[in-house]
Amino acid sequence: MFTKLLVDLKLYASTINYDTLSGEIPTAILLTGVNLPDHATLFNLLAHEFKDITQHVAIIQRRDSYNLKNMLEETVYQLINVSENTSLNMKKYQCTPSVLNAWYEECTSKQPLLIIIPEFESSSADILQEFILILSVYSKQIKFILIFGVATALHAVHRSLPHHVTSKLQVQVFQAQSQVKSLSSVFEGIVLSTETSFKLTGRAFQLLTDIFLFYDFSVRGFLEGYKLCMMQHFYGNNINALCCNKKDEIKSKISALTSADLKEIMKLDSIAKYIQELPKEKRESLRDDEFEFKELLLTLMNQIFDFTWTFQIFLKCLHCVTSDLPNAPLGKQLRETYAKAASCSVTDSQEYKDCLQFLGFISKEELLQKLESMVNIIENSGAADVLEDVKLSLSKHRDAISDANLELVRETTELDIGNEKFNRFQLKEKLLEMSKKHSISPYKRAQLDFIDYLDKKIFSVYLKNPILLPASEIFFFGDGNSVKHHIIGSPRAAIHTGLNDPQAYLDCSCCTSNNEQSILATLPDLSIIYKLHLECGRLINMYDWLQAFLTIVCPEISGEEQREVDPELQARFTRAVAELQFLGFIKTSRKKTDHVMRLTWGCS
User: Fold this and answer.
1) SS3 state at 78
2) 132-142 burial, b if ≥16 CB within 10 A, otherwise e?
3) Do 27 and 171 touch, CB atoms closer than 8 A?
4) CA–CA separation, 261 vs 218, rounded Å?
5) How far apart are CA 22 and CA 136, in angstroms?
6) Distances (CA, A) of 513 to 16, 80, 520
7) Please, what sign has the CA dihedral across residues 9, 13, 15, 18?
8) Cβ neighbours of residue 449 under 8 Å, at least 6 residues apart?
9) Which of 205, 324, 349, 492 has CA atoms 20 to 30 A from the CA of 509?
């Protein structure tokens, strides 16, 4: 993601000529986009890569720039204390620009000092202005390099810095790769790679892409979710060890399966359905003979390997043919086409049929260009030998379309019935068939033949729904609900579980109860208060609540109304109520001063 950007930045920093700057500070403005979770990775990698140019790097975070004094101290401190072996052991309050200037004059290397501000928009404009002006005073003695991370657009810099400040900077703008392109690169290199046998489909893939597009734009977050799906797929299930990257490994892995593993494989929905459709004698022999079932399993696994390989190739062909059609029915990005093809039979969808109709309206040059792209995809896939027949057929269609002219050919519309006799219905059908005939050019005929070939001989054959394949559960993972609660937290449900059943998190014997409705005296005070508040209505009387709490924590005085309450017990009750209010379950009532209002009415 960041390779080209880092190379450009290093080239810029290494070619700065400080003799021609006349007091200006070389500044690189890095337009990073809004993928904030990935920014820390980018700037830490940037600081590491610049070690070849300078050892003195300061990364000023937003928390370090709440005032000018703290920002200067943090900058000077990081620049001087480059490592633990530094002889200068200065306190942070001693770090000032004059100290930096004196230290730099004594340095023998005279390396430039790199200052990185990752979140430019989050910093105070006034503090930034003063900071840059102070640096410009020392820029004739010290070699500075500034890098600003801008998440929005370049005008954010001009809006924050007036002209008399920007005139002190020599600005160079760098553009990071967009988040959508980064996701597409990761998708093609990992999810759709022919070297990766594990495949995300259905709800799981849609969940990860939705989180990326509508929540954080984080490629790192997408990869972490992908790893979580892999763990969910492989963890606790020995049969998924058959999901390997090399076809040669399948036979040895199948041989290592135990009888229990084979029984688990037979229970897979796709395998059970496949066996059920076999003749009765074949079904019985498979259940009784493990060797025969292993042979069948080996055949099915090899079929999935071959299917996955061709599926990925022709999915790219479908994308290159349909991505630039009007309204892009199957999506402009390859991941959109994959999401559709990996969750259903794409050739049966209305979007696919719309694409075929649009292909009938494109020009000859566009059609030839798409056809040439398909041939290149097959040649670059490494499967040209296996798909030689498809490649030859595409070449023939390319030649036919290229040689076809656009002149119309008139077809006869005379009704030639000879000696045949037609009834009224047959005559109607004959006339309807003739009415459909119209003038057509050789190019149009070649175009229709090519579209029909794509539909019936390629996409309908190689882009079947992968979920319908026997043993597809071993390679394809689409259970989004099983990983959703790991990725998307449910804090309210977790708080309710923790307060209603503390043993679920504390794992202690004192909180164990057979009845969830019972309230033990050994429970934490907050849990007791919470469970009592679930039994109340909209308004909770504080005095009655306190009496109920005392009845539970002091069962020896049960049945007696306590006017004089032990200060320690009252303090415990008050603290628990305050914590419950902080969690958002109750609030003070304006109608009755001795009552609180319950905020989770009907949600218990």
Assistant:
1) helix
2) bebbbebbeeb
3) yes
4) 38
5) 10
6) 72, 60, 8
7) positive
8) 397, 400
9) 492
Residue 261, number of CB atoms within 10 A of its CB: 16
What is the sign of the dihedral through the CA atoms of 542, 545, 550 and 556?
positive
19: tokens are 């003799």
Q: DSSP 3-state assignment of 113?
A: strand
Q: State how far the Cα of 534 lies from the Cα of 601, in Å rounded to an integer.
A: 9
Task: Please tell me the distance from the alpha carbon of residue 218 to that of residue 189, in angstroms, as a whole number.
Answer: 16
pLDDT of residue 84: 45
Q: How many Å apart are CA 402 and CA 539, to the nearest integer?
A: 81
Domain spans of the chain, in order of start: 3-177, 179-345+464-489, 491-598
Q: How big is the CA angle at 189 (ends 185 and 193), to the nearest 5 degrees?
A: 140
Distance in angstroms (rounded) separating the CA atoms of residues 208 and 190: 14
Mean pLDDT by 10 residues, the chain (604 residues): 86 87 88 78 86 88 88 90 59 86 83 90 90 91 91 87 91 86 86 83 90 86 91 82 82 86 87 88 83 88 88 91 90 90 88 91 90 89 77 89 74 56 74 63 87 91 89 88 82 84 80 73 88 88 89 73 80 93 88 85 52
Largest distance between two CA atoms of the chain: 117
DSSP string, 198-239: -EE-HHHHHHHHHHIIIII--HHHHHHHHHHHHHHHHTT-GG
DSSP 117-165: ES-TTTS-HHHHHHHHHHHHHHTTTS-EEEEEEESS-THHHHHHS-HHH
Q: Is 311 within 8 Å of 340 (Cβ atoms)?
A: no
CATH topology of domain 3-177: Rossmann fold (3.40.50)
Residue 589 near residue 538, CB atoms below 8 Å: no
User: How much is the pLDDT for 128?
Assistant: 93
Distance (Å, rounded) from C-alpha 530 to C-alpha 583?
Answer: 11
In the block, tokens 């390629």 appear at 458
Burial of 182 (C-beta count, 10 Å sphere; 0-12/13-18/19+): buried
Query: Would you state the structure tokens that stand for residue 14, as one six-digit string?
Result: 């290494």
Choose among 299, 304, 271, 305: nearest CA to 287.
271
Tokens of 188: 């093609």
Taken as a whole, the chain contains a residue count of: 604
Pair 366, 386: CB distance under 8 Å: no
Which residue type, as a one-letter code, is found at position 520?
Answer: L
Q: What is the pLDDT of residue 413?
A: 52
Rounded CA-CA distance 434/437 in Å is 5
φ, ψ of residue 279 in degrees (nearest 5): -60, 155
> What contacts 577, CB < 8 A, 6 or more positions away?
529, 542, 545, 586, 596
Task: Check the CA dihedral 94-97-101-107 and report its sign.
Answer: positive
- Quote the tokens at residue 100: 């930096």
